[in-house]
Amino acid sequence: MSRTVLETRDLTMRFGGLVAVDRVSLQVEARQVHAIIGPNGAGKSTMINLLTGALRPTAGQILFYGRDITGMSPNRISHLGMGRSFQRTNVFPSFTCLENCRLASQSRLKNSFRFFRPAESYRQVTERAERALELCGLSHRRHTPAAAMSHGEQRQLEIGMVLATDPRFLVLDEPMAGMGQRESETLLELLRELNREYALILVEHDMDAVFSIADVLTVMVNGAVIASGPLDAVRNSEAVQHAYLGEADAVEEA
Amino acid sequence: MLDIPKSIRILLLLLTVLLACYPLWGEFFFGDRYEYYLQKLTFMMLLAILALSLDWLVGITGMVSIAQAAFFGVAGYTLVMLTPEFAAANVWVVLPAALVMAALAALVIGLLVIRTHGIFFIMATIAFSQMLYYLFHDAPFFGGSDGIYMFFRPEVSIGGVQLLNLEDRQTRFFIALVSLVAIYLLLRVMLRAPFGRVLRGIKENETRMRALGYNPLFYKLAAFVIAGTIAGYAGFLYTVQDAFVDPSAVSWTLSAHALVMVILGGLGTLFGPVLGAFAFEWLHYGFSNVTRHWELPLGIVVILMVLLLPRGIAGLLLDLSNRIPERKPDPAPAQGKGAAEAKPPIRETTKEARP
Predict the structure, then answer these.
(1) Digit-coded pLDDT (tens) for A167-191
(2) Which pTM value belongs to this model?
(3) Which end of chain A is more exposed for a tag (fewer CB within 10 A), N or C?
(4) Number of inter-chain CB pairs under 8 A, A vs B
(5) Is A178 near chain B, with CB under 8 Å?
(6) Is the minimum CB–CB distance between A96 and chain B shorter than 8 Å?
């Protein structure tokens, strides 16, 4: 049952003379963890911005569940079921955990032009938010404002908010960024859990994490894909060893 | 910010009661000047409504608009223009008309400015409010810079039975008071509702809102029109009170005053800007008794207050109320927000006490 969830065809993004993403063609199948790695400036984040609609590609096509979503706005893409987490923590600091997730969950109402009933009284919205909190392991922090939580917890919340939008597919931009060892492990556990249900694209610098969870690995350098395929094959390929893993600094960063 | 601490609620309630009872105690304290202050207070309450509407944009949604007076003035002009020269207008016609005109102006200007951010948004709102200002200022039809008088205040009656006499000062005072309280409560309710949450989310992080599936433009436009309509309502009552309108009602100076009221009172707290409006007008009145250049000393006071109370009057009150231990076994939490709050689940009231 390998249904293609996401496919890009010759996806290209130019910023003036710079080709940030160069004719990238990828496929993500159902329940796959597709990791994208590469040194800084390889175009990973641009790739994510293209997939989620934050940027409009210069050329190429993006298909999501067979539907052409090239050039759609981020909010429409979100409603098609693509959930995106951000590299830099992007929670609402003055909201509590639950409010953060509730606002995310509320986006699944037809619209939020609801002026009078208190937001808490929308049962489905709150239930979905609670479920997301539980999944990301923050139920006990329900009433803590996001600003008062540790960086690692905020990263968890970041993912909880994505889950609260009831996605079909997750695009996670460096979920482990800036996390300590133990926090990373907790998050990795969560990702494994999520992978039972969702396919996901994971951009990550933490190689141990990538190797332990990815099914498919794509390596980007200077905007282009230099290798893509099953984890082991790519990990051992010479081009990758040379271009990426061979560079001590690049690995060090993780 | 959704729940304001109980102590502040009690304070607000007391102030409201005190204000409502002014007709009882005012004469005793002020003697001859009772009537004068009655009118002054009425004006203050109407400006407080204007400040509230601006806080909805600036403090809640994060849109710093300098066009709020435009909608205030448009409603005022609509009222005066629709009032016959030698008869009273029907309030059931002129009030909706004034509100619709203010809302329309907000819709049109909103559509044009809503895509801009930051300083560009500020400039765009100034530009449009200036356009309106010169429209009213230069067109003889609108009375030019002299403005226009309204000789009869609108009639409030149903089936020939008069409900309210707007010529009566005390009636106008109570209308302003009831309106202020009602609009304040309405905004509080909306803030708790899904709509208000979305606006707060937009203020904190618009990109994230998009990624979550919201289109911020619709919500910002709606917020802009709602705020514009409320400003229009304030402008309508203000013009009823004044029986006169001139271009200063549309001026960007008034918009800027409203912004100072909001900042002085405390951004995004709703009750703060109301207090800010009273404080501002009180200082205005005090200084203008001393000098014609009242804006100079007022400016100095405002600068000092912003330096000393960066979160405004509301911020001060919230800090004070945090020191009052609520009836719980544990004492009030430490002021430093990060460190001490790590362990126990924090109560709604205390942690919300930050604008």
Answers:
(1) 999 999 988 887 888 888 888 888 9
(2) 0.88
(3) N
(4) 114
(5) no
(6) yes
